[in-house]
Design goal:
mainly beta; seven-stranded mixed beta sheet
């Protein structure tokens, strides 16, 4: 309509409509994986929400179909449609993003869209060397990015994340010795504890025993915790953060000299456990520790940590 002095005044509705047409906000896009109905999916915690993601292995082909719908059947001009498969590491601390895998498929040359357009895709022999990870400050993810380019540099983008698990073949010749240690406070407390292994796959059971050789303080209870330690950066920019993944009470009440307390911890009950990661793409590492904690009647805590190695079992 016309404003004062003949100046044209656009309504907010018209402005929103124009912006939608320019920037493609009203274009509807999606990705369907070719074997979505038969492929296993996993529920993962991403930030404050749970997300369902299809699960792939390092050697699996990524294929399927993408669709692009023009709004209300209108004819839409575009400058090309492309699909990218990206593997990247994201740091919350310094907001850096590092791509370690990137492949592109050009699905359509510049032209027009009218109604729905579908495009098949396939990424074969894609390098997926690392396992997906959503941690404390670091995130490693694989995703498909569908982009419809428009005039003046505008574009419409849709991302579809999928999960990658890497497995470790079982090597019976590799050392997996029991862990035995002694812990004590002079003339007050002396205990021995042992775990049956130093390496565990993520569906295994941690077995062990704790022997009380000397007890002159009144222990109220004892617990075993799994601690995840995530580290990233180097030198002055190195950063390490710990998180308690699981906690399990193994004794309630005061032990006596000569008593033995068994340990049985089922790792399969903790979905947030990941394999141990060593210097992933020179960006981050994840280590795990079994933390034995004793609490006395005055709420003083005595603890001992022991590093263990977790892996995802392969064939």
């Amino acid at each position: 309509r016309l404003g004062v002095g003949g100046t044209t005044v656009c309504s907010m509705k018209a402005l929103r409509k124009g912006a939608a047409e320019l920037f493609g906000e009203s274009i509807k896009m999606g990705v369907r994986f070719g074997d979505a109905d038969s492929r296993r999916s996993v529920t993962v915690r991403v930030g404050e929400r749970d997300a369902e993601q299809l699960l792939f292995g390092p050697e699996d082909t990524i294929s399927g179909t993408v669709h692009v719908d023009s709004p209300s059947g209108r004819r839409i001009e575009h400058q090309g449609i492309r699909l990218e498969l990206i593997g990247q590491i994201e740091s919350v601390l310094d907001r850096t993003v590092t791509e370690f895998t990137s492949l592109v498929r050009e699905l359509a040359e510049p032209g027009e869209l009218l109604g729905r357009a579908e495009f098949p895709f396939e990424f074969a022999d894609v390098e997926k060397p690392y396992e997906s990870y959503d941690g404390i400050h670091m995130r490693l993810r694989y995703f498909l990015r569908l982009t419809v380019a428009k005039a003046y540099g505008a574009k419409a983008v849709h991302e579809e994340t999928f999960r990658v698990y890497t497995t470790t073949p079982v090597d019976e010749s590799e050392s997996n010795n029991a862990i035995k240690m002694e812990v004590g406070i002079e003339d007050c407390l002396h205990i021995e504890f042992e775990y049956n292994k130093s390496r565990y796959h993520l569906r295994e059971v941690v077995l062990g025993k704790i022997f009380f050789l000397l007890v002159r303080i009144r222990i109220k209870h004892m617990e075993l915790a799994i601690i995840k330690r995530e580290s990233s950066g180097v030198g002055a920019n190195a950063y390490t953060e710990s998180d308690t993944v699981a906690k399990y009470e193994i004794m309630d009440g005061a032990p006596v000299r000569g008593e033995a307390i068994p340990i049985r911890l089922f790792l399969s009950g903790f979905d947030q456990l990941t394999p141990t990661f060593r210097n992933v793409n020179n960006k981050f590492s994840v280590r795990y520790f079994l933390n034995l904690v004793l609490v006395d009647e005055e709420d003083r805590r005595y603890f001992k940590q022991q590093e263990v190695f977790f892996y995802r079992k392969g064939p």
